[in-house]
Structure to design on (267 residues):
């Protein structure tokens, strides 16, 4: 835990010093990205490990709730989909109440889950939820908040789970640093071929695909031919890779987060 705190402190110091943009790993598909004082979170509020994945450490969760460095000044939170290892309504609601300046961008299914958890439709929290209702056939949607530019498309969840809205959020901080998160998108080339103009329209500084894409020919083709990110960092690693990151990366032949608090420079 002390190692995580130290790593996150480095990120906080770098952000306030306007150092190059960085990404820090929280757990599973949870990532903090910062450039200067602009900061966003991906898939950071969830409760289920399904007996296989890491959950966000209690001390890290507490720091996020309190807005302590480096989680001070978060501009937006992004949710890829509503599976319990990416999103849970209770901690998400608690965070929105604790941090009244933060805006949540999420699938419509997440908004419904928050309502289903007992939040009233007229609750002030609901005014800060930018729910997007997309199908895989719909055009990309463009949004923004403050110094954060956003493009989102629906990409089917691995296994072609048709009842789950799974979104790929492409987020640009300060018109300079662009990252793309895929949730649990399946490595299906046809799903990216139909979106090739969208993905080709902006070169990402970093992409955060599910780690298993590295082990699939289709996943590598998607990353090389459709995404073209300067840095590719796998997420969603099993808890068993913790403490074995070097071995796991060598076996996959690609970079991935395995240790909470790990950081990568994105410039």
């Amino acid at each position: 835990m002390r190692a995580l705190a130290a790593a996150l402190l480095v990120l906080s110091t770098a952000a306030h010093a306007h150092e190059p943009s960085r990404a820090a790993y929280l757990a599973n598909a949870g990532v903090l990205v910062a450039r200067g004082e602009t900061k966003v979170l991906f898939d950071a509020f969830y409760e289920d490990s399904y007996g296989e994945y890491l959950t966000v450490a209690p001390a890290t969760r507490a720091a996020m709730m309190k807005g302590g460095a480096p989680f001070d000044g978060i501009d937006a939170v992004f949710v890829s989909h509503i599976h319990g290892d990416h999103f849970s309504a209770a901690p998400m609601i608690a965070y929105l109440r604790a941090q009244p300046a933060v805006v949540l961008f999420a699938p419509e299914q997440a908004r419904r889950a928050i309502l289903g958890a007992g939040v009233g439709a007229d609750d002030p929290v609901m005014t800060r939820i930018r729910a997007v209702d997309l199908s895989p056939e719909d055009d990309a949607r463009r949004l923004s908040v403050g110094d954060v530019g956003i493009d989102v498309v629906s990409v089917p969840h691995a296994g072609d789970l048709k009842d789950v809205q799974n979104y790929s959020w492409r987020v640009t901080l300060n018109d300079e640093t662009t990252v793309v998160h895929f949730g649990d998108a399946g490595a299906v080339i046809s799903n990216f071929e139909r979106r090739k103009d969208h993905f080709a329209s902006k070169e990402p500084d970093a992409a955060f695909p599910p780690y298993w894409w590295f082990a699939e020919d289709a996943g590598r083709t998607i990353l090389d031919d459709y995404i073209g990110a300067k840095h590719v960092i796998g997420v969603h690693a099993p808890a068993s890779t913790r403490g074995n990151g070097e071995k796991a990366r060598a076996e996959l032949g690609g970079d991935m987060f395995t240790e909470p608090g790990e950081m990568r420079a994105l410039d």
The two ends are 27 Å apart (CA to CA).
